[in-house]
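writing this on my phone so excuse typos. first protein, seq and then structure
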Amino acid sequence: METLDIGSKRPHPPEAAEQFLANYIAAKYAPERKMKDVDRILLADVLFIYHTDRRDQFEDKLQQRRFDASIDRLNEYFGNHKLSVLASRLFTCWS
């Protein structure tokens, strides 16, 4: 019985298709950057957006790792809370 090596003969998908898939997956799992009610926004989403926007500003790998660790610690503690809870507590402390 003859076996076929299909894996080596499989054509590579076009680069545009790979890029489309990568963009689709990133958009699917990225938090929305639209205005919405603070009672529905998780602090984990806020931290994720902040991390995404700021991480590349650190050129030093050590600074990037420290930044990653800081965001991870904040996410562990605050991530499951809604933005409205933090906002109301901060407002209460400052008034």
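second protein below, same order as before
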Amino acid sequence: MSLKKKLIILNTTIMLGLGSAFAIPSVKAESISEIQSERTGIQSDISAAEQVIQELKKEQSKMNSQIAQIETAMKENDEKIKDTKQEIKDTEKDIDSLKKEIKALEERIAKREEVLKERALAFQESGGDVNYLEVLLGSSSFRELVDRVGAVAAIVEADREILSQQEADKAELEKKQAAVEKKLQSLKDMDVELKGMQSQIKEQKAETVNMKAKLEKKESETKALKQALENKDAGLEAKIASIRENIKKEEELKASEKADLNRAAEEVNSSNASSKESSSSSKGEASASSSSKGESSSNSSKNSSTDKPTASKTETSSKPSSANTGSAITAGYKYIGNSTYVFGGGRTASDIANGRFDCSAFVAWAYKQAGVNLPASTGALTSAGRQVSKSQMQPGDLVFFNTYKTDGHVGIYVGGNKFIGSQSSTGVAIANMGSGYWAEKFNGRVVRVN
């Protein structure tokens, strides 16, 4: 075989080797790019899952706070129930004492009635026409006259005193009976109110605990999803590392093969150059010129393949929002998150300073900050302005709910199907009346304060 043919075969073998060395990693580089793109999507999903988990934790924290508020309200309500029961016992003792007094009064009245009956009978038996003047004139001596005058005066005064005592005892009896009945009725009403309120608080706690359980379940599912995504991402990362390792080994192998080919070419060139130096010099120059052109063409091709398009930029924007629902509403904002529902609270300076309100007292306090005096009971607040339909509700209107009784809860409408009020489950807070618990309890009564 001639030297020219040998060189052609050798160069062809080298070029094929070099082409193979660069072609395989290029294919695998495309595979890495695809896997990396998939990883980017998975990592984005992992970030989204983490954000969901954080939001769920915030909601759970809020639920824990609500449960703590509810338990505080239940505890204070229990104390009030105990106090009321004790007061009922004390009142029952008072009633027993009053019953004894009433019995004694009744006995005194009965005795006086007997005395008066006897007087009447004696008067009737004497003919029914006893004249005190005749008794006086019938005296036989001045001394007897004086004695009879004293006796008549004593009898008249005794009768008058008996009648006066009789009327006084009857009046006292009626007064005590009325007081006992009023106190008993007041205690019965309070007992019903407290038991109803406690039932409502327990209902709200059950709903809150149920909501918390749902949030915990959702968090658990999201964590499991996040873990699965992280496992998949780790698998893809390992796959990329494996491909890169294989590329490295192949490149090392091709580099070794190329070195072997280069050494073989050098050996061929060296052996032929020593025997035919003079005759092959011109041919060698021509071959070198051809090789130079090939390399120049190859370099030009490589340089042209390195141009890349530039990436475009994106812009983001956000829209601001604002809201203002009036001084009566905004007055209560300072108590959101740092107040407690207390039955009967909000009627003293100490309660107000410490954010201790029931629903009606909070509404009265909030409107007082706006210069409007309202009563502090739900019953009275239903007549604190004019009734409007729920379709015409405006921020500032009073809204009522049937909880443990008709119109058992009241708040101030703030718009967007929400109201601010002192709830047993949260203290002062903005609640949704468009769905859930308060939507079910809303009775449609809306009062616009004049």
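Confidence is low (pLDDT under 50) at residues 18-24, 284-325. thats all i got for now
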